[in-house]
Design goal:
Pfam families: Metallophos. The protein is of the alpha/beta class. It folds into two domains: 275 residues, Metallo-dependent phosphatases (Purple Acid Phosphatase, chain A, domain 2, 4-Layer Sandwich), CATH 3.60.21.10; 63 residues, no CATH class. It contains eleven helices and 17 strands. Helix 3 packs across helix 4.
Length: 369
């Protein structure tokens, strides 16, 4: 019997440090660096381990925006090459800064980044779409897939020359070849679930954005289905397949332990779980370079970008939604000015804080994280 441990991180969105950047000097149970410490412990305990990054790692945090503005590919790849990731998958937000930025990062990584259903010409945009690993003679195939709805959301010039095929049809084609060679099949899909896993009832409009339920029910040969995109917390087993979705922002990782029985050539699932970064996590010692980057981003967030003469503080979130308020009025005016629309609607995220006096980038993030 051979034990194989599959670890998943997903939707980290550039949250490397233990902060959501709303305030300075935060120490929260989250971030890639804290995850790395826990993942290293897992690898020490389980020699046959695969660490999969399920995508949405390039965009999402002020840090990501800062690096993209500077076109700093090197810092990005230097950090990720230290984490010990074995294989990655493209998420939909990987395209938000354009193909040139994305390709520079992918080319600098020391592990393959997959998506079998995103094509450039007749070939997968990155790699082969499948990565192969072997543990004591046990062959493990990881197939990468990405939600196919990216053309609906993304700027056309950012995905020029790419084709986004249906994830279900692509997997059907790949499995017809992979099953002949693989002892263990892992599908890492940057997408979520369109139906309730227990009842099978639709939980959203069936637009093709999320097809995780269809993958589970149509392909029982999948041993492990790693998912993301929805930022949900899922660790379960369905129809003999281990299913994981580990939240977002580096607060959690998913863990599946499989046993491969060579006598019967069967796979059994020993454990399927989520592991949170603990509140009492010991402080992670950062290098001078990592600390310098952290301070640069924090200083940049404190820079003044505007000034408002009329106070726009949100003291009563409910009342600010129900009745006209200077802050929501400002947001609507901005949207109308930039879009040319005659009517605008907006929303307060996380209750909102509003603006008063000097406005910094941190103020913007606190209102619209």
């Amino acid at each position: 019997m051979t034990e194989i441990c599959i670890l998943e991180i997903s939707d980290v969105h550039g949250y490397w440090y233990p902060t959501d950047y709303r305030k300075r000097h935060q120490d929260m149970p989250m971030g890639l660096f804290q995850l790395q410490s826990l993942l290293n412990q897992e690898k020490a305990n389980h020699p046959h381990t695969l660490l999969v990054d399920n995508g949405d790692f390039i965009q999402g945090s002020p840090l990501c925006y800062y690096l993209a503005r500077m076109k700093d590919y090197q810092t990005f790849t230097d950090i990720y090459n230290r984490i010990g990731i074995d294989v990655g998958v493209l998420g939909n937000h990987e395209f938000n800064y354009g193909l040139n930025y994305l390709e520079n990062i992918i080319n600098g990584l020391n592990y393959p980044v997959l998506s079998a259903n995103i094509l450039k010409g007749n070939q997968p945009f990155t790699g082969d779409g499948v990565a192969w690993f072997e543990f004591e003679g046990v062959s493990v195939a990881v197939i990468g897939l990405t939600t196919s709805n990216i053309p609906i959301w993304e700027k056309p010039e950012y995905i020029e020359g790419l084709t986004f095929n249906d994830a279900v049809k692509t997997l059907e084609e790949r499995l017809s070849k992979v099953t002949k060679q693989a002892d263990v099949i892992v599908v890492s899909y940057h997408g979520g679930f369109e139906k309730d896993l227990q009842t099978g009832e639709a939980t959203e409009a069936l637009t093709g954005e999320n097809v995780g339920y269809e993958l589970l029910t149509q392909f029982p040969e999948i041993d492990v289905l790693l998912t993301g995109h929805q930022h949900r917390r899922i660790a379960t087993t369905m129809n003999g397949t281990a299913v994981i979705q580990p939240g977002a922002k580096g607060s959690t990782y998913g863990k599946v332990i499989l046993d491969y029985h060579s006598e019967t050539e069967k796979v059994s699932i020993r454990q399927t779980t989520l592991v949170d970064v603990p509140e009492s996590m010991p402080e992670v010692i950062l290098s001078q370079e990592d600390m310098a980057l952290k301070h640069k981003v924090e200083d940049w967030l404190e820079e003044r970008i505007a000034y408002v003469e009329t106070p726009m503080i949100v003291n009563d979130p409910f009342e600010s939604r129900r009745s006209p308020h200077p802050f929501t009025n400002l947001l609507n005016l901005i949207q109308m000015d930039l879009s040319g629309a005659e009517i605008s609607c907006t929303a307060l995220f996380d209750s909102g804080n509003g603006f008063e006096g000097d406005v910094t980038m941190r103020d913007v993030i606190a209102n619209y994280p």
